[in-house]
Amino acid sequence: MYKKRWVLGLLILVMLGILIIYAEKISVLEEDPQIAENIVGELKAGNKIDFQKIIDGEWDSMVIVGPYTPRKKAEKFCNVKLDKIKHYRMDYSDSETLLVFCKGRQVLKYAYLKNQTASIDWSQSRGEFHLMAFPKTASTFRVVEQRKGKESKRLILLKEN
Fold first, then answer.
1. Can you give the residue ranges of every domain in the chain?
2. Residue 148: pLDDT above 60?
3. CA–CA separation, 146 vs 144, rounded Å?
4. Pick from 7, 23, 83, 87: CA 20 to 30 A from residue 112's CA?
């Protein structure tokens, strides 16, 4: 009798462990590669980028997180938990920018924008970290060509167009 209870208890623990692992896997979001593709297409098309037009879904705000921004600082700034982002790497990365699309306080989609694709003009950012948030209705930005010698790069100006 004692042995049966012990085996049953062990079986319940194993099943709980599997359930916890499965629940965590389904609760995190993968990066949406379509977002980066849409941004590249929009950058090639002209001198503005309209996120409202190129990002599908019911999002109502976007948060832009720059290099070396710890997750906790970004969460405090935008009042959104970023733990659904599978691989948050902005606290140590300087080669990309994180774009997060939210509905209320919930992350719906996100993507990393490589600096080779376009840079963000952080001149409007305040505070020690590069963080900015915009409502969906104010998510159209100008894009300018930035030249350094023979190389040129696109610069997204974070001001409403």
1. 1-29, 31-160
2. yes
3. 6
4. 23
